[in-house]
Each structure stands twice: as structure tokens, then as C-alpha cells.
Protein: Necrosis inducing protein (NPP1)
Amino acid sequence: MPASAAFADSLPNLPENADGYEASFSPAFDYDVDGCYAVAAISPDGTINGGLKTTGAINGSCRDQTDLDRSQTYARSKCNNGWCAIVYASYFEKDQAVHGSGLGGHRHDWEHVVSWVDQSTDRVEFVSTTQHSGQRTYARSEVQFDGTHPKVVYHKDGPSTHFFRLANTGDEPPENHYHSWRYPPVVGWNGWPTTELRDKLMTANFGSASIKVKDSSFEYLLDAAKPGGIPFDAYAGGS
Structure:
């Protein structure tokens, strides 16, 4: 398996392979025009995405329809005490704040959504999104859905960089090339072709960006984002 990194133009994504909850409650994505599309972070042959320099346009070289066609979502879940939390990770080649400058931005970006499912109703009751170095959790009443899928948008935060926000009525129709809510193929924690391929992504160096489904970050994110008043234990064993 090659250890090299390459730009995403040469990286195909992996086929969808996710369990029922991971597939049923995955986010419905859109991407505002002033940002990149989510793409594959690793190819089937193990090549890691090299990302892009934060130069040129904010969405330069990362928002073509071909990029959208190579999107990918990585998932990992944990269930206990009547609740399941499913973390969805999306990779972007750069997170650029200013046109023509790397000021405040960085090569590589990982952003995350958590669906909190009440197992007694099989329904998403809360949604969390990562925002810069933190996270925010919302009640179901604040979230728009496409069926069972929470709608989220990759959004530029004013003069700052990007994160996922909840969709609102002003996001119809979506701004991506297909003008529809997007469902990148979901690869669940147990849905990788090999554990070697999964481990390679989890141990890859993405600079200041970090994938939160890896062992060292997964439970911490769940604990930090956990809605108040539910008995879910982020650090309990098992999944």
C-alpha cells in the first residue's frame, strides 16, 4: 500500500458500507458557494489526500462538480443507555478565510456532525456540529430534516474559516452543482475494506485539522457534545 500523499483530483472515493443507523441518520449536506466540497481523504489504494494551499480564491480548485462527485463521509457510532451517537466526519482540501491569502486559514479541514438517536423511537432528537475548536448541540425542534437525515450546510463564518451549520429555509434550493441535498457515500467504522486502510487514515497527519472518529478524539467529542439530561456515557465500553 503506497504511503504517498496526492491531490484529490487523483483520489476516487470508497463505496458506501455503513450499518443501519449510520446510513439512516447521516446528514443531508449542502455547501455554500464560498467554500470547498467535501472529498475523499484517502483512496482505495491508501493514498492520502495532500490537500491544497490556501491561495487564490477561497473556493479555488476545490468546488468543481467532479469534486462533488468524489465526496465521502466517514462514520463511527456508540450506543448505550438507550441512546446512540453517530459521528460523521467530512474532509475538505483547505479551509481558507481570505481571498488570495493563507491568513487565518490552513491546508486540510475536518468538520463533524453528530446525530443523537433515541433508541426507543429510532429518531434523531439532537444534532451536534463542530465549530472551529468547539462544538454546538441543537434540539430536534431547531433542525430541518430530509426524511430522517438532518440538513447541514458547510458555511463560511463571516471573516473567519468554515464549519457546519444547521440548514434554514433560506437554503432552498441547495447551492451545490446539483441543487439537491447531497448524500456522500458513508463508510462506517466497520465498513472499511481493510482495517489497515482505516488505520492509515486515522494516523495520517492533517496538520491543525483532526478527524474526530479516531480513538484519541472520538469519546472526547461525544462527551463534549452530549446533550444535557440524557444518560448516554461517552466513555462506556463497546459500540
